[in-house]
Structure formats: structure tokens, C-alpha cells
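Example 3.
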Amino acid sequence: MLKYIARRFVQLVPVLLGVSILVFVGIHLIPGDPAELMLGDKGTAEDLARLRHQLGLDQPIYIQYARFLAGAVQGDFGISIRTRQSAIWEIGQALPVTIQLSAAALLFAVVFGLAIGVFAARHPRSLADTGAMIGVLVGISMPVFWTGILLLLVFGGLLGWLPIGSLLDQGMAWHHVTGMPLVDGVFTGNWAVARSAAWHLVLPVVTLGLASMATIARMSRSTMLEVLGLDYVRTARAKGVVERRVVSRHALRNALLPVVTLVGLQLGLLLSGAVLTETIFALPGLGRLAITSILARDYPVVEGVVLIAAAIFVLANLLVDLLYAYLDPRIRYA
Amino acid sequence: MNVVQAVVPGARRRAAALSWRRLVRSPNLLIGCAVLVLVIGAAVFAGQIAPYNPIDEAFADQLKSPSWLHLFGTDEFGRDIFSRVLYGARIALGAGIVADGIAIVFGVFFGVVSGYFGGRVDAVIMRGVDVMLAFPYLLLAMIVVAILGPSLINAMIAIGVVYTPQFARLVRGAVLAIREQEFVEAARGLGGGAVRILGRHVLPNILSPIMVMTTLTVGFAIVETAGLSFLGLGASPPTPEWGSMLATGRSFMLTAPWIATFPGLAILVTVIGFNLVGDGLRDLLDPRLRGRGF
């Protein structure tokens, strides 16, 4: 297993290098000179030349890339054109918000998706199964931004059950440890913060996790149906094993494998959906930072956000692959 | 006439009848087709069906709730939402066609070249695909829009770029499976050139997975183009685009919820249509995957 992990990590290097080249080239293709943007209308031609020299923009492109890569490895993406803060500081503030949101959405999707899928598979062609599968079809097809708006309208606006947007109740502050209010609230024993953060997370999590939940429900239903029809399950039933145990101990384990792969694929969907969810619920996460920076042509922050998001995505996918290899030894030795 | 038809007269007719029976027996496919006919009909005949001009402002009719005069109500500029949703179908289908068209053309090209020629070409193309797939797709689309400049057509191109590596990977896999088959080897043995073999023998045999992938991705391409417009990176007002209609309707959610409700519903119905057709086609064309859908 260790050899397999090492091999997979080595394979990551060229991919991440490729990502860095694509990001660098992409950002350089965006029309407009970062130095001009930073100076605005105030600077003279000499100021511009000085700033271009300072930023290394007068160097050949490969030297600029080498400097960018050396900085990126150390987490230095330069200074934000918009806020004049260091880009990595801005990203550091936003990243925990996105991680908390995506992780909670993934948990929601896996728990409810599996539960619905297994339930539907145990009652195939029943009214509940048909209803669940229609729900799944709608869930997969709902655009994230519309789901968010509808949930806001119904649960935030009309019923007033849940708070609209932001991380915590107005005026509430918390002691930053991880930057995730829910986690920090629990760790520091500040239950008021934890409760408020959890309450504020409900609508964004459902919005972001709905499509993934539906996809997982659909996949787990079909794999469960397949597994429940296999000989070893029939043998277990013939031996007199209770149905609940047949499902949980015998069938579910094998049905889980394709679901694990699917969870890996959902990560990209969740990170992309986070951009929209954070915009709708006014959450100060990585997605919202990305869109604000792109609209403001704040290139250092865009570079950092995209590179870090891609690195997280690639690493999370690797983690899923390792989990898969752990669950199914045939993959390790292939 | 091929061998089967020569030996068994009427084989083609029977195969067609079998496909038709399967089609009729698949309610998902039928419902999906019906939904798509409705959406395509709305797009084609928008000019005839729409009671109002989708862009003309009528300040006397601002924020009117749904009624017989305005079936879906009016927006903050007094524009008829029903007419805007109908015209929006044109843009949505256009987005699906442009984005998927780009992905198919480039994805099939790179996939075929990679799978058929193998070796270094394959390695280079597939590493490129790996790199593109390493991006969360919306971020990649946002960068492409940032390079090209925010506009509706650039949003469509961006989504096409995002889907290209997925098509390339699918097509490469299909070509690898076909490449070593005897009929391709026979064609090669008879002296057929690469272009002829690819065009006459390989491409026709990988059409089914491409067709299934196309129908399954068109719906999502429509959603994602609308998503970019929602973020302000696609269509700009007053274009009757569903995503940007939703974005403006968001500010009036509590006072005039119909502004955002109907464009959202239109996206949902269209995507459900494409998903049902995609699933149905997959079941029909690839029996191994039957039952993976609904």
C-alpha cells in the first residue's frame, strides 16, 4: 500500500506543474497590464516602468514563470491589486469558509444519498422508490443558483425559520482557530457561536449538496439492487441472516465501492457549486473571492485561488483513490 | 447491403422494429423527447407565441404578478416574463449547441488522435487532459471567460472548453477498444490510410458513446452557461437569458418571486428533458449500462 501511495504522489507532480503553467499562461493572456491596473490613472510613465520592473513584468516570460512558481511553492502570490493585502492572506481568510461549507455539503450528500438509495433498492418498483427516483431526477437537474434562491425565499423569507446569508448572527464574533466558525465554536466550547454557525450553514449546505445527494442516491440504488441479487446475498438469506444484517454487513460493503468513486467525482462539482452558493448566501469563501477578483481583474488573487483550488481538488481525488484502493485490494496490485 | 442483410432478408427492418419497440417501452425516453419537443418548439416559435417583445420596457406594468395578461408576470422594467422565458429558450439551446459543439469537435479530434496513434502523441494529449480535469470546472470556465472577456458567446465557449477533455477521454477509450479489432486490422492490411480508416471504420463505431455523452452534457452545459451569466460573466441585460434573469430576480425575491421562479423552472424542465433522453439513449445504445439510470 505504501508503494502505491508513493507512486500516486509522484504522479501528482507533473499534473500540478501543468496546472501552474496553464494558470500562469491563462492569467497572462487576460488583456490589461497588472502594473497599469495597480497604478490606476495616477501614475506617470516612469512610475509605470518602475512598477513593471519591481513586479518583474519586464523580464522574459520564462523567468516570470520561474519566479511565479518559486513564489507559489512558498505560498507567495504577490499583493492583491484590489485590497493591497497579500494575496495568500486573503485566500487564507476565505479558504476555511469554503472547506467548512463543502465538507458539510459532502457529508449531507453521502448520508442522505446513501439512505435514500438503500431504501429505494430495498423496495424496488414501490411507490416510495418511484417517488425517490423522481426526486433524484429533479435534484440532479436543479441548478444550484435556483435551489439557493428558492430555499432562501421559502425558509428564510416566507417561513422565517432559517437565517439568510452570512456566517453568524449579526454582531457575533468568534475566536479564530481554524477560521471555520462551526469547528472553532465547538473546539473553544463557545456553543452560542457553534449553534449560530450551524443554523447559518443549513441552507447553503442543502443548496450545495442537493445535486450530489441525488447522484449518490441514484448510484447507490442501482449498485445495491445489483448486489442484492447476487448469489452470496441469497446464501446469506438462506442461512437465516436477518434482512437488516444482510443489507448492512453483506450487501452495503460491496455496493459502496462505486459510490466512493462517485464521491471523488462530486468534489469538483462541490468546489464549483461553492462559487455559486457563496455568491447567493453572501459567504466570504474562496468561490466568492474568485469571482470578485476576476471581476476586479485582481490577478495575483485569481492565480492563487485557482492554483490552490486545483491542488485541493487533485489531492482530494487522490485521497478518494487511496480509500478505494484500501477498500478494494485488487486495485493496489493491478 | 451487409452480410447479415444478405443472409437474413428483412434483418434491417426487424432491427428497426426492435429499436422502435424499445423506444416505446422506455417511458423516460418518451417523456424526455416530449419535453424537448416543447422546449425546441418554444425556441423556434418564440416570435409567434410570445405576446410581447422580450426587451421592450413598459414602466406602467412594473412588477405585475402573473395574470391572464402576463402569464408569468412582469419584471422591474415591466417586461413580460413569459415572452422573455420563451426567447430565453433560444439562447439556452444555443448555449447547449455551441458549448457541446466545441467540446465534440475538439474532444473527438484529440481523443481519436490520442487513441489511434498512441505513443508520445497519446501521452502528451492525455497529460493535457489530466491537467484540465484537475481544475474545478467552473473555475476553469471563469478563467476562460476572463481571458476572452465576459459575454454570452464567450461563456458558451468557456463551457465548451471545460467539456472538451471529458469528450477526449471518452473517445480515446472507445478508439482504443476499436483499434485492435479485426475489421480495423483488415482495413489496415488492405492498405487503408489512417484518415480513411478513422473516418470509415473507427468513427462510425464510436458514435453511440459520443451521442449518449452529448445528450447527457447538453443539459449541464445549459445550466453552467446560465450559471456564468448568473455570476455576471455571461449574458448582460437586457438579453432574455435565463441565468441573468435569475440574477436580477434575486433582488426582488420577496416582493416579486415570479421574476426568478419562472426562468429557474424553465432551466429545470429543459435539463430534466435532456437528462431523460440521455439516460434513455444510454439504455438503448449500451445495454451493459441498462438500469444505471431510472
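Chain A touches chain B through 54 residues (CB under 8 Å). Residues 268 and 313 of chain A are 7 Å apart (CA to CA).
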